[in-house]
Specification:
A: Rossmann fold; four-stranded antiparallel β-sheet; 9 helices; disordered C terminus; B: alpha+beta; 12 helices; membrane (chain B); transmembrane helix (chain B); transmembrane (chain B); cell membrane (chain B)
Amino acid sequence: MQRQTAAGRDVPAVAVAAMRYRWPGAARDCLAIEQFAVGGGERVFLRGPSGSGKTTLLSLVGGVILPQAGTVSVAGQPLARLSAGVRDRFRADHVGFVFQLFNLLPYLSARDNILLACRFSAARRARLAVRGTSAEAEAQRLASRLELGDVLHRSAAELSVGQQQRVAAARALIGRPGLIVADEPTSALDADRQQAFIDLLLDECAEAGAALLFVSHDLRLARHFDRIVDLAQINQAAVSGEAAA
Amino acid sequence: MTPLLSLSLRSIANRRLSALLTVVAVALSVALLLGVERVRNDARDGFAQTVSGTDLIVGARGGAVQLLLYSVFHIGHASNNVSWQSMQRVAALPQVKWLVPLSLGDSHRGMRVVGTTDDFFRHYRHGEGRALAFAQGKAFAPAPDGLFEAVVGAEVAARFGYAVGQRIVLSHGSLGGEGGPRFADHADKPFTIVGVLARSGTPVDRAVLVGLEGIEAIHVDWHGGAPIPGLAIGPEHVRKFDLSPKSVTAALVGLDSRIAVFRVQRQINTMGEEPLTAILPGATLQELWSLVGVAERALLAVSALVVVVGLAGLVAVVVASLGERRRELAILRALGASPPQVFALLALESVLLSLAGIVLGLGLLYGAGALAAPGLAATWGLNLGLGGPSAGEWRLLGAVIAASLLASLVPAWRAYRYSLADGLTIRI
C-alpha cells in the first residue's frame, strides 16, 4: 500500500539519541536508549509490557519531562531547547495523544472534546485554515469518518468506551499534527473491536500524513504496522536492571 | 486563556449540586457578615440618637455616664436629687430655651415611672430629630386636671395590654420588677391612661409618664420612703395640698443656640448654690457606646470567622474534587495546557464560585433587608438602611474577595503540583 506522502517526510517524527532518563528520587535509570526514531509518516508498533518505561518514554516524547542526558526531538525540534511553556504549545501543535481509557473531559460534549485540541493550538487551527476548512467542519468530517456523526452532541460520559476512544482519536488527529501517540488505546475494547479501531487509526494517520507511535504489550495487534520495536531491546536500562535484579 | 473560562464554567456546571451548596454556604456567610455590619452601624446610629435635640442633661453632681444612664436609659439611680430652685435657676439662664424636668424613683410592674411635664412630648427627640408620636390618646393634661393621668410607652402597653382609659397603680421605688421584691404600692391613688406612645426604639417605650404633680401627690402622705402611719390622704383631698415639686432627678435642656452649649455647661457646673453636672448627651452616648460596643465588634469578628469557614468549605470541595479530576488534568496537559494554565483553571473555578457566593449573598442581604425592615423598625425601632453598600461594607466585601482569591490559590497550587508530578500519566 502506497502511503500518502506527508510534508516534511524526510524529517523524523521522533528522534531519540543517547538518551537517559531517571525519575527524581529513583535509584537507577528508567530509560537508557541509544537510538530510536520514528520516520515522518511512519507507523511504529512499540512493544512493551507494563512497567517497562513506555509511559515515561511517551512523557519524554510529549516534552512533559526532559531527559538527564541525550536528546529527544519531535519533528526535528530538540525538545530540551524549548522553554517549558513553549514545549507545552509545541506538544499541542505537533502531537496528538490517545490514552488507554478516560481520554475525554466528561463535562464536555463529544464535539467540544474534539475541538479542545484546536482551542489549545493556534497552529492546528491555522493548518485547517490553509486547507480551507474550519475546526468545526473538520470535527464533523472526522466524526463521520469515525462513525460518530450522530453522537457528536452527546456528553462524553454518555458514550460507549468504543465511541470514547474514537472521539479521542478524532481529537488527536484534528488539525493534522505530525505525530499521533497511542498508549494501549484498545485495552478497554472487546477483542473484535480492537483490530477495527487500530485499522481506523492507521487509515486516519495515513490520510492525515501523520506518523503513528503505537504502544502496547499485545503483539497480536502489531499487524499492518511498518515496523515493530521492542522497548526492552532498545532500553539498556531495563536490560541492566533485569541483569541486576 | 479563552478556553479556560468556558472550561471552568462547564466543569462547575458538571458538578452543579456541590457547586450550588458551596455557593449557598458562601452566600449565607457573606450575607451574615454584611448584615451584622449593617445592623451594627444602624444600632450605633440609633443608639447615638436615643436623645437628639437635647443640648444638655442636668443632674446632681456625679459621673456623666451615670447621669445619662439614669436620666435617659432609666438604669441605676441618682445619688442625689436636684432642688426645684436650682432647676429654676438653670431654666432662667439667658441661653436656655426650654427645660424639661424628670423625676424618677417610682415604678409600675418593673417599668420606670417618669414624672415630667407635658413639655416632654414637645421637646424630646430621637433619631433624626423625630418627635414622640401617640399611637392612641394624647398627653396628660397639666395639673390639677391631669393630676392622675398617665401616658405609657409602646412596650408597656404591648406587654400588659394597656389601652387608653385603663387605671394603673404605681409602686414606690424602682427595684420591684414583676416577681421581684415588692415595694409598697400607691394603691390609694390610681392613674388613668390617657395616651399610648408609638414605638420609638428608645427607653421611653418602657416608661410610664406622669405629671410632676402626680409624683408629689402620691407621696404627700409618705415620709422617708414609707407611708406615714395613721396618715392617709385620699385622692379627693390631695388637691388641697401644695403639689409643686420640691426636687427632681434631672432635666433635659434645650438652648437657643448650640454654639453656647459649652459655656452654658460650664455655667451650670459652676453654679454656687448646689453642685450640679451638665452633660452633652451626644458625647456621653458615644462614650457609653465605646463600652457596650465591644459586643458589637465581637459579633463582627464572629461573622468574619463564618466567612472564613464558608471559604474553607469551598476550598475543601474544590480540593476534594481534584482527586477524581487528576486524569482530567493529564488530558489537558496532553492537549497542550501548561501547568500555569492548569493553575489558572482551578483558581478561576474557585474565584467564580466565591464571586457567585458574594453576589448571591448581597442579593440575600437586600432581599432579607427589604422583608425585615418594617418589622425591625416596628419592634426594635431599628432603621435598616437599604441603600447601596457603605464604605465599611465595601471594605468588608473587598476583604472577602481578597480572602477568596487567597483561598482559590490552594486548589490551584495543588492542581499545579499534580500536573507537574503526573505529566501525561492518567491516574485513576
